[in-house]
Batch of 2 targets.
Target 1
Amino acid sequence: MKHAEQMLRDDALAGKVIVVTGGGSGLGKSMTSYFLKLGARVAITSRNLKKLETTAQELMQETGGDCYAVACDVRNIDEVEAMHIQVLENYGAVDVLVNNAAGNFIAPTERLSSNAFDTILDIVLKGTKNCTLTFGKHWIKTKQKKTNVLNVVTTYAFTGSGYVVPSACAKAGVLAMTRSLAVEWAKYGMRFNAVAPGPFPTKGAWDRLLPAPIKRKFDPKKRIPIGRVGEHQELSNLVAYIISDFGAYLNGEVITIDGGEWLKGAGQFNNLEQVKKTMWDLLELAIRRKNS
Ligand code: HXC
Ligand code: NAP
């Protein structure tokens, strides 16, 4: 068995309708592909309808599943409500919302205009709020049970990070929303969970967070104890489990999948791995001498 094999049984998501924001590219596309293979019908949504339609066609051919493309800028509540209605007209009901759409780029915070900061907050935090409120209110009104929301955050949602401050603020807000609604809306039959991926190569993230000169200097693999970046299927396996009925007792959780990256940064002495054996021999001697 290999770590990037498909994990769940074939019908694990049969009968479910899932909406994936930002489903036309990157991790959203990979997750959608796996949800389709597991028997779900999936609506993918983002700003670029042409890209979504191409992706939907490609994934339907690849999986034999049913994928529906709907244009929507998650920053705009009117567009989110219209997208929701369009999906309901097409599929009748929705069981799962995956808030995956995001915007991000690296920049010293003092170089950001107010609009640049707002742009990221609006896509990530307001966009997640717009979708969650629209879908959640509908589920409450129609008394639909066994629904759930999966939010894609990142590890700096809880550690914070310089140079991506708007994204860190927005993802922290999304994590707070996840934990808050996991409690408040459980009585309506909804579950709320989050995943916090470490580096998983995608064009969207790599172009904006690891442009070539940065990548040469800060190879992400070197920061990860496991020594490699994530494979998309590994994240898809985790998310499919959480949103499936197998995850029915999982609520209010954020699961990190980063090969130990954030902990390596957090442990004060973790960089001592650079110390060679001969140096350790000398250090040990020196420390033992002090002890005696
Ligand atoms: C400073 C910048 C900038 C930059 C844009 N702006 N790029 N400021 N440095 N590099 C400013 C603009 O000048 C403008 O402010 C404001 O931001 C909005 O820019 P627009 O181009 O008008 O916005 P828009 O067309 O809506 O595009 C949004 C975007 C873009 C976020 C800027 O990159 C995008 O569409 N991204 C979507 C996909 C994405 O980002 N994927 C990566 C997710 S990765 P002014 O004041 O001039 O009007 C991720 C990983 C997390 O989240 C964790 C990794 C480990
Ligand atoms: P990506 O391919 O750039 O995905 C972002 C998606 O969001 C795109 O499909 C984009 O589509 C959509 N989007 C952006 N603005 C939108 C808006 N206003 N309305 C609707 N859709 C919008 O990047 P990714 O790496 O797959 O990221 C997916 C998720 O994983 C994000 O939440 C990201 O923060 C998270 N994440 C990624 C990594 C990583 O290493 N890749 C690590 C941690 C967390 P359009 O441009 O067509 O709108």
Target 2
Amino acid sequence: MNLNILLCLVLVATISCNPIVEAGGQDWWQTAVFYQIYPRSFKDSDNNGIGDLQGIISKLDHLKDAGVTATWLSPIYKSPGVDQGYDISDYRDIDPIFGTLEDFKQLLAKAKELGIKVILDYVPNHTSDEHEWFKKSLENDNEYNDYFIWAEGRNNNTEPPNNWVSHFKGPAWTFRKERGLWYLNKFAPQQPDLNYRNPKVVQAMKDVLNFWMDLGVDGFRVDTIPDLFEVEDLRDEPRSDDASATPNDYEYLSHIYTQDLDETYDMVYQWRELLDEHQKTNGGDTRVLMTEVYSDFEKNIKYYGLPDGSRRGAHFSFNFELIVKVNEGSSSMDILTIIDRWVDNLPEIYTPNWVLGNHDQHRYPSRLGPENRDSFMMLQSMLPGVQVTYNGEEIGMEDGQVSCDEGADPQAIKNCSIFDAVSRDFERTPFQWDESVNAGFNDGGRTWLPVSDKYLENNLKKQKEGVRSYYNTFKSLIDIRKELTLKVPTKTALLKESVMAISRPINDCRAYHFLYNRHGDTKEVDIPYGLDDSKYTVVASKLTSQHIIGDEVSQQIKLDPNDSLIVRETC
Ligand code: GLC
């Protein structure tokens, strides 16, 4: 009998047996590692304190060395920079702080040479208030007056049109005397929301996608997609059940009229058609669409498309559960429950994905404890489907130290009393390349955010030189992942209460097993799903583990508290 079936039958208790069957062959993106570059903080080639395209070009070899095959760049378009580029004043040009369109073409060419796909951030929900469209809308220009959501206020136009709250706190409306009306801004006032009920907006934003695909980009990460549409009659939203929220907080309301509307899903499906069409007409590999969604599972998977396959949407919609549901206190059981939920419930035609961090969330070594960083690095790499890595995670970078007066995040700098709680600057400090001045981010000029004071002990150069280092672990995990195609089942088990196990049996004679003794005393466990006469070799382990790469271990294995490792089983 096949090893998988046999073991599924034997080990039913705490174990989930759920092979993920891929739909129609495995495409380049389906098990790729997407590496997110935050351009401001990656590499500053002209020493002006802000990272740039020439800096990225000079470091593409690093991506190659790490084994990464696709990179997603946070916004590089023209922008006043209020929300660090997520406020765009020209969708078709590069901001001078990052370089020129020529630099971008050079970046694309070099990436292509190295076999690295390039994904751009697509920010459809809002522009900058300095975008031509908004300026003309403000002037009530016939062509543009309906490009944004304008409305009359309440109480003789003295108060916002309704009770909606911005993600960045306070009313989601700003009054402009030029038009005598209020406009919707779900983020900063300098980020007016576009009106997708206007077909001209829909077309103009589709043209943006075509513009970049014509230049050769391989896909898009779609920013804050759930916000795209809101109900037309602008009715008030009801109070949420978050008792601790105050009326100024986004969490105060239940966002049933401003998020995840049917029209929003439809627009994603339309963009997917456009991407597929572009590939059909121009040839080349799949242009990939990935959506940024923090909504619950049921709403999130609708961004993938309709379950009967009649309409397709994002190739994958970010799975942020390891960010929002896992914390330092989470047990092995808690984490396995979160994993099983995705693995068991995602329809087979879709590809799962796993994210541990990004530029909006504290870095996971800081969130989950620096002593656990390599365990989570291994965990992520053993999960099926796409892995998304935020720059710096490959060396286990922690959050930097930023004070309110050094900060730049628009949702935090206006109010220093909430800076530590809400600022996203901590996870955006410059990349730590080496031990030279400013961690090698630039040649010693000022930096837009301070360089973390941890850079001497943690930088890429040092980790490359180390025998056991996070970077070396990251690289060996990428090699292992190459074998873990979507056809390889994912099986989880909880052993002796504290040890989580994730097994990926490749065939009857070869498997990988991840074991992590989280929050437990020393435990001796049997590697699950193994055969009697198998050989077990350690292929990755926690830097402090007594189990070293290359060690042969028996099926019964001892794990110290918090120890973790991956073994390869062969027979
Ligand atoms: C997304 C981005 C975030 C930005 C927001 C508004 O959530 O990731 O950085 O502030 O959208 O564009």
